[in-house]
Specification:
This protein is an all-alpha fold. It is 70% helix and 0% strand.
């Protein structure tokens, strides 16, 4: 019969709990800075504060972890560049907000510079499925821009003859270029100047220049 004063034995072999979302945030930051291929499992375990068995148990593989990191990146950073776009009253205001907010977000002091999705080269590194995820994420930008431009045409804001696909690609290309420049050290003010010049191109293409002068 056990002594009632006996201290219960401690359970053995129980893994130490960790904050999965916090670990994912650290992995996202590392992938954002270094890219998929250059980030090793050792890099990840050090940044996440867990051992490799815990990493595989929680996320399955490095590839699966990267896919989750893309989701985490979207969920936590999307509003930085899209909130103003969606709340704008006109397509011009929406596009200007998108580019100006991108200039701010891409050069933020507390997050890595540039866009994780725009800068990703995972597809060309031989990881086909991850490359498809990245391409799909990039396509969202084009789809949103085209939808807003088509709305502007239906509301009479821009001419019906506007090449929606080309204009949306133009805006997307400017924002992607801003991301590369931000990674190379361009300042927020430099990127804002790029955004303002891009809006001059918008005005010329949509007829806003004439309307503003009139």
């Amino acid at each position: 019969m056990s002594n009632v004063n006996e201290t219960p034995a401690r359970s053995r072999g129980r893994p130490r709990a960790f904050d999965r979302e916090a670990a994912l945030a650290q992995a996202t930051r590392l992938f954002w800075i270094k890219g998929f291929e250059a980030t090793s499992i050792a890099d990840l375990t050090e940044a996440m504060g867990i051992g490799s068995p815990s990493l595989y148990a929680a996320f399955g593989s490095k590839e699966a972890l990267y896919a989750e990191a893309l989701r985490h990146y979207r969920d936590n950073n999307e509003a930085l560049v899209w909130a103003g776009f969606f709340s704008a009253g006109t397509a011009r205001e929406a596009v200007r907000s998108f580019l100006m907010d991108s200039a701010a977000a891409l050069t933020g002091l507390d997050i890595p510079r540039g866009c994780m999705v725009a800068l990703s080269s995972v597809g060309s590194e031989g990881h086909v499925e991850l490359g498809e995820l990245v391409r799909a994420a990039r396509a969202v930008t084009l789809d949103r821009l085209k939808a807003r431009l088509n709305q502007a045409i239906s509301e009479g804001e821009i001419p019906a003859s506007t090449d929606v696909h080309a204009l949306a690609r133009f805006v997307q290309t400017v924002q992607n270029g801003m991301s590369i420049l931000a990674r190379d050290g361009a300042t927020r003010s430099e990127l804002e100047a790029v955004a303002e010049l891009a809006m001059l191109g918008w005005d010329t293409r949509t007829g806003d220049a004439e309307r503003r002068q009139g």
